[in-house]
Amino acid sequence: MTPRYGDLAREVLGGHDVGRSEALGVLRSPDDDLLELLHGAFLLRRARFGRGVVLHVIRNAKSGRCQEDCAYCSQSAASDGEIPRYDMQSVEEIVDGARRAHALGAARYCIVTSGRAPGEEELDVVCESARRIKAELPLALCVSLGSLVASQAARLEAAGVGRYNHNLETSERHFPALCGTHAFPDRVATARAAKAAGMELCSGVLLGTGETLEDRVDVAFALKDLGADAIPVNLLDPRPGTRLAAEERITPEGALRALAMFRFVHPDKEIRIAGGRERILGPLQALALYPANSMFTNGYLTSPGQGYEADLAMLKAAGFEPAGFAE
Ligand code: SF4
Questions:
Q1: Environment class of residue 32 by beta-carbon count within 10 Å: exposed (0-12), middle (13-18) or buried (19+)?
Q2: For 123-127, 239-243, 285-289, which range has the lowest pLDDT when averaged over its residues?
């Protein structure tokens, strides 16, 4: 095994910042080098996070009926996919979800609502839920409510929300192919507002939407410019009824190379293998935990995963362990 990515990892641990051409080189590396590449990424992951895996549980607190036209999203008005559609849940329902996430051993609970931006009443529910959850449970709290203005971000931070999720999804060049009702700079503005309010920023990507390898590198560096603290890497599992329903799936090897690239560009940030893990990576899903140090468990927004027990068995069989609550 030619120790190329191992050397690059040691250079990064020594202070080297991976550049765009090196990142592109990772994405263009041949399948035969995949294990060596994952080894290099693992050296960075282990140095910062050991063998811990942060388990996140998502709460779909308001589902469907979104007026935006995001091409990949089954909650979009442009989609006629079969998904649950309901208005904002109550504080009690959201807090009860947190109790169950905690009982599962999750370290993070993420409250998500569909829609371009939260209404003030929805924000009231989320803030009250956050106060109750922080008072009762040792759980790190994230929310994802769409676009935010500074005053809304400040309210969330004051209520105990430690991290705000707002994905860039892809490069600025490719974004118009995915969404016509809002623009890439809108996403950047919300990400900046969340950071300015003192919350951590969780901002990630959706791979396999027709983007180029250069687009993947561009968004990796755009996230670096934003100072993203956590980066969920979603793999498009084309949803029936959406505009990308017929999109060709990313290969498991391509997805694993991308995860490694994100690890090399963001050596000490939380990298999450997110949506599409089971259906795109299949029997190779444990390999994703060599570059990534976190994952969702117990399902996704509108589609079930393989379940908590199977997730736990998978990560333990690969020599990883759930990381405890840390904020
Ligand atoms: S704004 Fe969010 S919920 Fe609405 S269509 Fe886009 S991704 Fe889906």
A1: exposed
A2: 239-243
Report how far residue 78's alpha carbon sits from residue 58's, in angstroms, rounded to the nearest whole number. 23
Three-class SS state of 307: coil
% of the chain beyond a pLDDT of 70: 98
In whole angstroms, what is the distance from residue 38 CA to residue 61 CA? 36
Q: Is 116 in the pocket of ligand 1 (CB under 6 A)?
A: yes
The domain made up of 5-322 has a fold known as: TIM Barrel (3.20.20)
CB atoms within 10 A of CB 324: 11
* pLDDT, position 4: 84
Closest residue to atom 5 of ligand 1, CA basis: 76
Domain boundaries, the chain: 5-322
Per-residue pLDDT tens digits for 22-70: 999 999 999 999 999 999 999 999 999 999 999 999 999 999 999 999 9
116 C-alpha to center of ligand 1: Å? 6
Mean pLDDT, rounded, for 251-267: 98
Question: 168 CB under 6 A from ligand 1?
Answer: no
Tell me if 146 CB under 6 Å of ligand 1: yes
Q: Please tell me the distance between residue 52's alpha carbon and the centre of ligand 1 in angstroms.
A: 31
Assess whether the C-beta atom of 118 lies below 6 angstroms from ligand 1.
Answer: no
Structural Rg of the chain based on CA atoms: 19
Q: Where on the phi/psi map is residue 245: left (φ > 0), alpha (ψ -120 to 50), or beta? A: alpha
Question: From the DSSP assignment, how many helices (H) and strands (E) are in the chain?
Answer: 11, 10
CB of 73 sitting under 6 A from ligand 1 = yes
Q: How much is the pLDDT for 77?
A: 84
pLDDT tens-digit profile of 81-117? Answer: 889 999 999 999 999 999 999 999 889 999 999 999 9
pLDDT at 27: 98
- DSSP E strands: which ranges in 73-215? 108-113, 140-144, 163-165, 200-202, 205-207
Q: Is the CB of 68 under 6 A from ligand 1?
A: yes
